[in-house]
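Structure Section — protein described below
Tokens — whole-number codes for backbone shape
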Amino acid sequence: MQRCCAIRISSLMGKLPRCGYLPLPKERCLFRMVPVFTTIQHRKYCTRDSQRVFYDPKPDMSEEEVKHIKLEPVPPVVEPIAKRFALLLSFNGQGYYGMQRNMTGKTIEDHLLKAMLDTGLITPREFIIPKIFSFQRSSRTDKGVSAARLLVSCDLMCDKLEASEIKRKLNQHLNDEIRVMAVFRTIKTFSGKAWCDSRTYSYTCPSYAFASYREIIRDSYRLPEDGLAEIRKLFAEYIGIHNFHNFTSGIKPHDQRARRRILDIECSEPFEQNSLEWITIRIKGLSFLLHQIRKMVAVVIAIRRGMACENFIPQALSRDYTFLPIAPGLGLVLENQHFDNYNKKYGSKGTHEMLTWDSEAKEIEEFRHKNIITPIMNAEMKERSMLEWLRLFHGYCTDFDFTMVKESEFDAKNKRPETRSVGLFVSFALLTEQKDTANSIVDGTHASHLVEECYDSHSEDNEETYKHPSDL
């Protein structure tokens, strides 16, 4: 007996919107009907081998009207079949609150869904609830983070449209900061998040961020060769499977989510632009935690500037607790996403497209240089976010040797270490000691107001509550 019988059975006890003999899965009829009556009605009007016929007589209908319903079938409604597509995006994340929708402000996903709605690829209901058409992003980005290659998967009702036509229509309704670089036809069960094997991020910043602790930062600063070799050596310590619970928030040391695998880290040769020397760090891993990359970069900066010991990275990757600084998010970019397993299983057979974008490499690189890297450098030159962060870093951070807190000392109730003298909490005596260093970070720029503001906002009684780390 057919499961999807379209017949409607009438009785004195009520009406059923389906065949009463065999209800659909996970559905139960609210009415109890006589099995014999149901079987007779099904044998007489079941639409298993014929067109769909709706038999729903009303009490006030005549015999001729009932016969008319029986004899004239309802024409079947042909609905377009949804097909699974993958869209490759490139966007500049400055001014946006990340890729995914949130209640804070405008996001990349809002603009993309609005473009799909304007082109008729999705319905207004799907625009409100993207899960209806299986919308899935392969990665999420934080506020202000850009992406050179980010893949999203979804079901689209576009039987007569080619992939190039979908790309053209979507780009017509998107601004210059968001572009659809390619459209791929995938298998029906494809999910951008599930099939993404690894991700590559890059962090671009001025090279003076990695200057020595005693060096004075100027625009004319150039990173020496031995300094670049030391930076590469420090970043190489992250490669492998480690516990990154200190490099994010809200995850405990024994949580399996904290274990992440870093596949490769590359530090590019320094290059000059806008009278500054820049350096780019590329980090490839299976997946990343919130703020993980920015904290990885900040720890290397702290070691290079002499504010942490050389063997601090293995300590930060242990199961002890510590508060780590977080570098500015301006230079963070999602560079690439890799789908090697999908290409090997489906693309190599020739039945589906390979999820590679070699043919679009030139277009992507032009967009990356014009709309991502150049705005990042211009914003850094204007706002000096890295420079201001270094000033605060020297003013409020202490030696990382004193920030480690054993797991036995961790207060599980308050979710923070019991002592107040760890991480970024330092004594006023230590601030006074670092006053001269903070003044000399930039030639001609003084940061002595950091100490004076602290003295003005706290009384002498409050000063006793903050102890020097060496007194612990």
About this structure: The first helix runs from residue 35 to 45. The longest strand covers residues 146-156. Residues 1-55, 398-472 have pLDDT under 50 and may be disordered. The two ends are 79 Å apart (CA to CA).
